[in-house]
Amino acid sequence: MHPAPTPALPVTTLTIITLLPAHRRWGLAQMGVLPRSFGQVPGLRFGKLLGSGFDFGLRPNLRRYGLLAVWDSEAAAAAFFDHSPLWQSYRQRTSELWTAYLQPLHSHGLWDGTEPFGPAVAAEAPGADEPVAVLTRASIRLRRSWEFWRAVPPVSRAVRTAPGYLGGIGLGELPLIRQATFSLWESAGLMRQYAYGRQAAGRHQDVIRRTRQEQWYSEELFARFRVLRAEGSWDGQNPLSRPERA
Hints:
single chain, alpha+beta, Alpha-Beta Plaits, 8-stranded antiparallel beta barrel, 8 strands
């Protein structure tokens, strides 16, 4: 008897979209248009089109967006990126596209009442030198939004100079109150060093403590991923191919 074929595993993709300057208005309009078509995309389990801000902050970047998607398989993702008319309309209007293919390692919390990445546990932990990615997302209580946004600048400055940090972006569904971050790290060890080490005590850890004590969020999610591969460019390069990683 032939062994049963191995079932295809779900895969998550995060695409950073940089539009050509002439297409800012088109890109903003897609925030209301593209999500309506997600239900018609074969193999798409969960999808979010997200806006972005400069330096993780409030000032919107109307040329840059993020597409987060959870697929039945890599084949389903490839079919969309290679052949979907929806995606080709983006390709024609962009100066850069960068896509990371991700495997969930750990996830807890909800996004719109669902677990988009499931009770994520990868088959095996990443190696000591393998890159990892982190996604955070929160619905911020309106009455706590001022405290949240006051806390962002010092944390964003700290993360940009952290050892092992390769790149990141602030993303959002709605201005002020529905926000996400995506960051890329050389290894899980260096990511944990930033998040929980001594250097973080006055910045990142303090913000985490305040979010719990002061109940800043009505819903939140944290997920960590192995980076399977990445293709394309983001600010002129693939962050995983930076010379200092060689």
